[in-house]
Amino acid sequence: MHEATLAARNFAEAIALAEVDASRLAIVVEELVTNLYDHGGLGDDAMFTIDLSATDAEVVMILTDPGKPFDPASAKVDAPTRSRGGGAGLKLLRAWASYTHYQTVEGRNRLRLSLPRTP
User: Which of 13, 53, 63, 112 would you label with 106, given CA atoms 20 to 30 Å apart?
Assistant: First the structure.
């Protein structure tokens, strides 16, 4: 997870992303990767990819992983619990990002989302 978050931070710096947007990107990456291991069934040797690109208006992230099929755009958000947050991460993702596409192909999830850039 640390490597993925660091890569997001490095990407943000390379494209001169505003600090608030860079922080949101890093948090979104951390949340998604954490959930892959906590809920998606990934083990330490599992391989996932995060591809990042940007336009003047948005940062686009494509996450590809071999975890359990899961479309966060259609997932039900449970009431928060003290110990784990119970959907707080999904609420955060929905507030900061737009899910533009999800599919499962040959046992791999592919999630495309975009985060708007501060003008």
Answer: 53
